[in-house]
Write a structure and sequence with these properties.
The structure is a single chain. Strands 4-1-3-2-5-6 form a six-stranded antiparallel beta sheet, sandwiched between helices. It has helices at 33-39, 48-64, 93-115, 137-165, 175-183, 187-198, 207-211, 251-255, and strands at residues 23-30, 70-74, 77-82, 127-134, 213-225, 232-243. Helices cover 41% and strands 20% of the residues. The longest helix has 29 residues, at 137-165. The protein is globular, with a radius of gyration of 22 Å. α2 (48-64) packs across α3. The chain has eight helices and six strands, in the order βααββαβααααββα. By secondary structure, the protein is of the alpha+beta class. It has a domain at 18-146 and 210-260: Alpha-Beta Plaits. Bound molecules: 2'-deoxyguanosine-5'-triphosphate and magnesium ion (MG) (4 copies). One magnesium ion (MG) is lined by residues 29, 75-77.
């Protein structure tokens, strides 16, 4: 860089490296998706294609950055987990959050026609991003439990709400009336309404809606053609999986111990 009389301005920049040896979570959230989902006529309460599009964007981020070990998405948000040894962008916060958010938004736009072939994109999607450092594995587990509990609570509410609002037996019913009915119900009450009045067993609804989506790498045996011999060879490759598993209990983490393993 040319050392001019102007170069001193560089010294005004802030050192924003995130604390070393800590877990990093970067969470993106769609800006004004209440409006965006309406403008693009997303299915209520869940638009499977829109959620698949979010997951495709997350996959592209995982493909680009080996340091990211897991992504978890629900609604218009996506969280990315990086381990304590991650040195991506020298852990500079602004570089990390701005790059991931802009790549995600660009992918969302780029992949839109593939996932929403019958809907014209009306406005550019925008995502905010924040980075949070977590010192312990328990904090990380609790972070994902928090997001998945949020997914569950919102989905149970929204499923009951829209089922009642769109009920053909009650065409006169307003959203305000349904809000008033649901105000005094707990989770069991909403399950009960769905089951007894609509024959809907909440537990049988798609797991992507109830649990959110989790993407991570697994070592998988892949048959490839050897470049030297031309023979088929079996190699262990990282393959990105998308699952809709429970993240609150131990089973998922016990089944995939590499995700929370810290490299020395
Ligand atoms: P923000 O994040 O403060 O800029 O504001 P919003 O409007 O993005 O609010 P947020 O992120 O708290 O809530 C997400 C909104 O996106 C919420 O109004 C529901 C909507 N949304 C997300 N996924 C779907 C979907 O699959 N179908 C429908 N119909 N709406 C969805
Ligand atoms: Mg918000
Ligand atoms: Mg939002
Ligand atoms: Mg949101
Ligand atoms: Mg540059």
């Amino acid at each position: 860089m040319a050392c001019t009389q102007y170069a001193y301005v560089k010294s005004f920049e802030r050192d924003d490296r995130l604390l070393p040896n800590t877990w990093l979570v970067v969470r993106l959230d769609g800006q004004a998706f209440h409006q965006f989902s309406k403008a693009h006529q997303f299915a209520k309460p869940n638009d499977a294609a829109a959620l698949d599009l979010m997951n495709a964007c997350a996959r592209s981020i995982l493909q680009s950055y080996q340091d990211i070990v897991l992504a978890y998405g629900e609604s218009d948000e996506m969280s990315f987990l990086l381990p304590p040894h991650a040195q991506i962008f020298r852990r500079r916060e602004a570089k990390l959050v701005s790059t991931i958010a802009s790549q995600f938004a660009a992918q969302y736009t780029f992949l839109w026609p593939q996932y929403m072939p019958n809907t014209t994109l009306q406005s550019p999607p925008v995502f905010d991003a924040r980075a949070v450092v977590y010192p312990t594995v328990q904090n990380v587990r609790d972070y994902f439990a928090w997001r998945q509990a949020d997914c569950h609570i919102n989905n149970l509410y929204n499923t009951t709400f829209w089922t009642m609002v769109l009920d053909p037996k009650h065409p006169e019913r307003t959203t305000r009336e349904v809000e008033a009915i649901l105000k005094d119900t707990n989770a069991a009450g909403k399950n009960e309404i769905l089951f007894t009045q609509y024959d809907i067993n909440y537990a049988h609804l798609p797991a992507m809606f109830r649990k959110g989506s989790t993407l991570f790498r697994t070592k998988t045996a892949v048959t490839e053609t050897s470049r030297t011999t031309g023979e088929p060879v079996v190699r262990q490759r990282d393959v990105i999986q998308t699952t809709y598993d429970d993240l609150i209990g131990d089973a998922f983490w016990d089944a995939h111990p590499a995700i929370l393993t810290v490299q020395a």
